[in-house]
Amino acid sequence: MYEWIKALHVISVIAWMAGMLYLPRLFVYHCEAETGSTQSGTFKVMERRLLKAIINPAMIVTWLSGLYLAWVGHWFSAPWLHGKLLLVVVLSGVHGFFSRRVKDFAVDRNTMSQRFYRFLNEIPTVLMIGIVILVVVKPFEGG
Fold first, then answer.
1. Which of 28, 73, 95, 136 has its CA 20 to 30 A from that of 84?
2. The three-state (H, E, C) secondary structure of 52-110, written as one string
3. Is residue 32 within 8 Å of 114, Cβ to Cβ?
4. Is the pLDDT of residue 28 over 80?
5. How confident is the model over 80-95, as a mean pLDDT?
6. CA atoms of 83 and 88, how far apart (whole Å)
7. 30 near 47, Cβ under 8 Å?
8. What's the pLDDT band for 93 if we cut at 50, 70, 90?
């Protein structure tokens, strides 16, 4: 069962990251759309559906399957896991920030610029790189 849960974890991480990398790009393009336009309305639908149908469920499955794997694998004392969990908590905070932005765009209250969202788009990438290195390399392990 452990291997199946691990596969589920990897699949959900991929889905979560795909959404986390795509959503801020939608925000960049949404900034260009005129308020009240058909294009703006389309972006609102895309952002909401991406968040509700993909990003939120993928994050939940990632957390649940990851915690299960850590528990069953007796990883909670591993220093690399502490670093990974810290980065995943930060990524979850970014997720929450993105959720807030979706709500702001939905009611035409975005106050951020395209440039801000272009910068913001890099944060999930940097966190993902750190998480993958911690999981694969396990740099704090002895030996």
1. 28
2. HHHHHHHHHHHHHHHHHHHHHCCCCCCHHHHHHHHHHHHHHHHHHHHHHHHHHHHCCCC
3. yes
4. yes
5. 97
6. 9
7. yes
8. very high
What is the per-residue pLDDT across 116-134, written as a single tens digit (0 to 9) for each?
Answer: 999 999 999 999 999 999 9
Q: Measure the CA angle with vertex 24, ends 18 and 27; round to 5°.
A: 135
Task: Say yes or no to pLDDT of 29 above 70.
Answer: yes
The position carrying tokens 């199946």 is 4
What tokens does 125 get?
């990438």
SS3 74: coil
Residue pair 8/68 in contact by the 8 Å Cβ criterion? no
Taking alpha carbons only, the member of 105, 114, 88, 133 closest to residue 32 is 114
Amino acid at 70: A
